[in-house]
Design goal:
carbohydrate metabolism, 25 strands, 7-stranded parallel beta sheet, 2 domains
Length: about 475
C-alpha cells in the first residue's frame, strides 16, 4: 500500500516469502519411477570415490573381494565403461566387498550406481562392522537396463573396521555395481556443507522498484518490509488437559501456531461404545486452537494397527466393520471439514494392515478417496515411522513409502488429492544417522510433496539436557 508522508510517498510492501522446500502442491499425476535417476550410463563417483579404492573398477576388481558364495566378473558397456557384476548368487548378501576404516564421530556419505540384470528389485548397501553387526545404510529399487543411484550412509559410533556389502533378496538376479563412493565428514564439515546448501537454496537478491500509476519511477521512495507469515510451521501436540488449565493454555498459545491432538480425535476416543459418539473434548480443543490462531493437523481418521482399534471394533465381521468404518469417516471428517490443515488418513499403513486384511487391499485408497470428497481442501498425509530415523526397518524405507503412496494416489478418483508425506521421527538416544536421513529426504523430496516431521521425540539419555 502507499501512504502520504512528509516529503513524498511511502510504498509499504508486506511480503510473504515462499520456500520451495515446504511448498504445498496438489497431486494430479505422479510417476514415482522417476524419483531416482535411471541412466543408460552411470555418472562419475561422487567425491572421486572418497576413501574407496578403485571406485570405478578401472583396474578390474583390485581393492575388492567376493563376499559370500557367489562369483564376480567384469562388465564393459558399449561405450567402454567398466563395472563389476556379482553373479551365481544364492544368498541376499552374495556380492562384492571392500574393507574400510570408520573413525568414531564421523559421518560417512555413501553412493553407488547399481542395476539388476533381469527384472526389478531392491539393492541395499550394508556395513558389516568388526563386531559382526550388519548396519543398513541405504536402499534403491534397481531395474534392468539402466543405472540407479543408491544413496545413504552411516554414522560411526565407534572406531571400527567395516566391510561394505551389497544386498539384494532377488538372488536369481545379477547385481551390477559401478562408481562407488564413501566420503567421511566431521560434524563441523557436515554443518558447513549444510549451511552452504541453505544459503544457496533459500537466499537470493530481491530488487524493488516503486512507480506511479503512469509508470514513472518514484524518486527517493522508502520501503518497509514486514514478515507476516513463516513458511516453516512449528508446533506441538496438545492433550485434553489444555481445556481446563489456563497455565497450559497461556504456555501453548505463546509458543506454537500448529498442533496435533495426541488421542482426542482418534476413533477409540470419540466412539468408545458402538453407536455412542462423543466429540465434546475434541470440539473444545478445536475451539481453543481456533481462538488462538493455531492450525490443527487431524490425527487420525483410521489407524491400521490392530492394537489401537476401539475394543468393540476388533471382533466385527468384515461387513460390520465396513459399515462402522463408513460411519466413522463420514462422522469425523464431515464434522471438522474446512477447519483443519491436514488429516492423517490412514496411520502407519506400511507397518500394519488391519483394514486391508478385513476389507480388501484397496481399503486405504478408498478411504483417502472418501476423505478427499468430504474435505477437498485439506492435505491428506501418509503418516509413518522409521522412514528416516531407523535404516534397519525395511518396511518403511523411502522406496516402500513411495510405492504405497503411489498405490493410494493412482487409485481411481484420487488423482486430485492434495497429498503430504508424514514422518513421525521417533529417534533413539544416540546420534542419528544424518547421512541416511539426508538421502531418505532427498528421495522423498523428489516427489515434490510437502514433507512434515509429525511426531518428533528423542529417547532418554543420561547426558541429555534437562
Amino acid at each position: 500500500m502507499m501512504k502520504m508522508i512528509a516529503g513524498g510517498w511511502l510504498l509499504v510492501l508486506h511480503i510473504s516469502i515462499f520456500l520451495p522446500s515446504v511448498c504445498r502442491i496438489h497431486a494430479v499425476s505422479y510417476d514415482y519411477s522417476a524419483t531416482t535417476e535411471c541412466l543408460i550410463e552411470p555418472q562419475r563417483a561422487q567425491y572421486e570415490g572418497g576413501i574407496i579404492s578403485n571406485p570405478d573398477f578401472t583396474h578390474g576388481i583390485q581393492g575388492w573381494t567376493v563376499f559370500g558364495q557367489g562369483a564376480v566378473k567384469e562388465g564393459i558397456s558399449n561405450d567402454g565403461n567398466r563395472y563389476i557384476v556379482a553373479h551365481s548368487r544364492s544368498q541376499p548378501l552374495d556380492s562384492i566387498s571392500q574393507e574400510v576404516r570408520l573413525e568414531k564421530g564421523k559421518l560417512y556419505s555413501f553412493s553407488a550406481w547399481v542395476q539388476i540384470n533381469g527384472g526389478r528389485g531392491n539393492v541395499a548397501v550394508v556395513f558389516k562392522m568388526s563386531s559382526g553387526e550388519l548396519v543398513r545404510g541405504g536402499q534403491v529399487t534397481a531395474r534392468n537396463g539402466c543405472w540407479c543411484l543408491l544413496k545413504g550412509g552411516v554414522f560411526a559410533n565407534i572406531s571400527s573396521r567395516a566391510e561394505i556389502l551389497f544386498e539384494s533378496k532377488t538372488t536369481e538376479a545379477e547385481i551390477w555395481v559401478d562408481n562407488v563412493s564413501l566420503q567421511p565428514f566431521t560434524m563441523e564439515q557436515w554443518r558447513s556443507h549444510q549451511d552452504e546448501s541453505i544459503d544457496k537454496e533459500r537466499l537470493g537478491k530481491v530488487r524493488f522498484e516503486a512507480r506511479y500509476a503512469n509508470g514513472t519511477a518514484i524518486e527517493g521512495a522508502g520501503f518497509s518490509i514486514k514478515q507476516t507469515k513463516s513458511d516453516f510451521p512449528f508446533g506441538c501436540c496438545m492433550n485434553y488437559h489444555i481445556i481446563n488449565s489456563t497455565d497450559y493454555q497461556h504456555w501453548f498459545a505463546l509458543r506454537f501456531r500448529h498442533t496435533t491432538f495426541t488421542n482426542e480425535m482418534k476413533w477409540y476416543s470419540t466412539e468408545k461404545i458402538q453407536g455412542q459418539e462423543n466429540y465434546t473434548v475434541a470440539d473444545a480443543m478445536v475451539s481453543f486452537a481456533q481462538k488462538n490462531s493455531i492450525s490443527i493437523r487431524g490425527h487420525n481418521i483410521f489407524w491400521d494397527n490392530p492394537k489401537y482399534q476401539p475394543e468393540w471394533v476388533k471382533n466385527l465381521t468384515s461387513d460390520e466393520l465396513r459399515k462402522a468404518a463408513e460411519q466413522r469417516i463420514e462422522s469425523v471428517v464431515s464434522r471438522y471439514a474446512g477447519q483443519l490443515i491436514a488429516w492423517d488418513a490412514m496411520n502407519e499403513n506400511l507397518h500394519f494392515n488391519f483394514f486391508e486384511d478385513k476389507l480388501g487391499k484397496n481399503a486405504t485408497a478408498e478411504y483417502y478417496a472418501r476423505a478427499y470428497q468430504l474435505d477437498p481442501d485439506t492435505t491428506m498425509f501418509l503418516n509413518e515411522y522409521n522412514t528416516i530415523e531407523d535404516c534397519r526397518d525395511e518396511k518403511a524405507n523411502p522406496f516402500n513409502y513411495m510405492t504405497k503412496l503411489d498405490e493410494i494416489l493412482s487409485y481411481p478418483g484420487n488423482q486430485g488429492i492434495s497429498a503430504g508425506i508424514g514422518l513421525q521421527g521417533h529417534f533413539g538416544s544416540g546420534q542419528p544417522n544424518l547421512a541416511y536421513m539426508r538421502s531418505s529426504l532427498d528421495i522423498l523430496g523428489s516427489t515434490g510433496l510437502p514433507i512434515w516431521l509429525t511426531e518428533v521425540d528423542v529417547g532418554k539419555d543420561p547426558n541429555q539436557v534437562l
